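Practice problem 4.
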């Protein structure tokens, strides 16, 4: 019974997909608004001269990813967290969606190979077990890109926050030297050559080209990368942009608080690693005791 049911389900799914391809539904209000937002976002990216470090997608991934990205925009899927993670890791949405589609598809293509392998092992020619194994692998492969992207984005956000703390100190020192707020921000962003400082420098340079204020550019970069510290900094600069002394004190206090928070996080990580090392040492001691006691136990049990 399982074979006919599975075949009927596959045929029904194919007929449904064929019907939706021949008679697509009319886009609703959310889809039209999403398409309008996507067009405006593309215009803003062209105006800001998106960083050339962004991942270039070509070949099969481009052919698969572009229709998937267009479908997501038509459906009105915001994907804010995914877009922020992709922005901070310099990846494209098309490449990410193509990877999420191609990995499970590759797992499903192994169904005939798995069936032949189990047939050679003598488990029969049934497709039920190979199909379930490949479906589980496809589900696992579907979530692997999300986990990898989230982990990499978390590490890069930690590095970016560390750079923001140093950037605040540099801006405070430039303000103390008599520079204005825009000049201090530009000078501080041009000091470092790391990827995070370059992103800040590019945002400030593009703001000067497009006619935005520097704090608006920093706020937009904070929203794009999901860095709350940059958004808070932009709000603080917008409130006290005319008072240099007040800005200097505020930036110094923010930098000190960020450093203290980073120190507390590092101490917490060091404590966790110390506990893990202690557990590893206890396991080694236990194994050594078993190694010493084992001959005596064998001798006692044999007598």
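Answer key:
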């Amino acid at each position: 019974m399982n074979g006919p049911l599975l075949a009927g389900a596959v045929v029904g799914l194919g007929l449904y997909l064929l019907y939706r391809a021949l008679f697509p539904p009319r886009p609703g209000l959310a889809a039209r608004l999403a398409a309008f937002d996507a067009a405006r976002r593309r215009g803003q990216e062209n105006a800001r001269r998106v960083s050339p470090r962004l991942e270039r997608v070509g070949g099969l991934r481009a052919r698969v990813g572009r229709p998937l990205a267009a479908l997501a925009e038509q459906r009105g899927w915001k994907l804010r967290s995914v877009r922020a993670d992709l922005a901070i890791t310099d990846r494209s949405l098309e490449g990410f969606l193509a990877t999420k589609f191609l990995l499970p598809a590759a797992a499903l293509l192994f169904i005939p190979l798995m069936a032949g392998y189990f047939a050679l092992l003598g488990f029969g020619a049934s497709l039920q077990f190979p199909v379930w194994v490949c479906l589980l692998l496809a589900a696992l492969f579907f979530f692997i890109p999300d986990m990898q992207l989230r982990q990499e984005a978390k590490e890069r956000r930690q590095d970016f926050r560390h750079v923001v703390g140093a950037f605040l100190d540099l801006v405070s020192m430039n303000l103390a030297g008599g520079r204005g707020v825009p000049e201090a921000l530009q000078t501080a962003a041009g000091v470092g050559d790391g990827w995070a400082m370059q992103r800040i420098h590019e945002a400030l340079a593009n703001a000067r080209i497009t006619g935005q204020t520097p704090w608006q550019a920093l706020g937009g970069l904070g929203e794009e990368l999901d860095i709350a510290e940059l958004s808070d900094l932009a709000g603080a600069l917008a409130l006290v942009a005319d008072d240099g002394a007040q800005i200097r004190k505020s930036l110094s206090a923010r930098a000190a608080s960020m450093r203290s928070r980073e120190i507390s996080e590092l101490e917490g990580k060091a404590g966790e690693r110390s506990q893990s090392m202690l557990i590893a040492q206890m396991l080694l001691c236990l194994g050594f005791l078993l190694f010493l006691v084992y001959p005596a136990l064998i001798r006692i049990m044999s007598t």
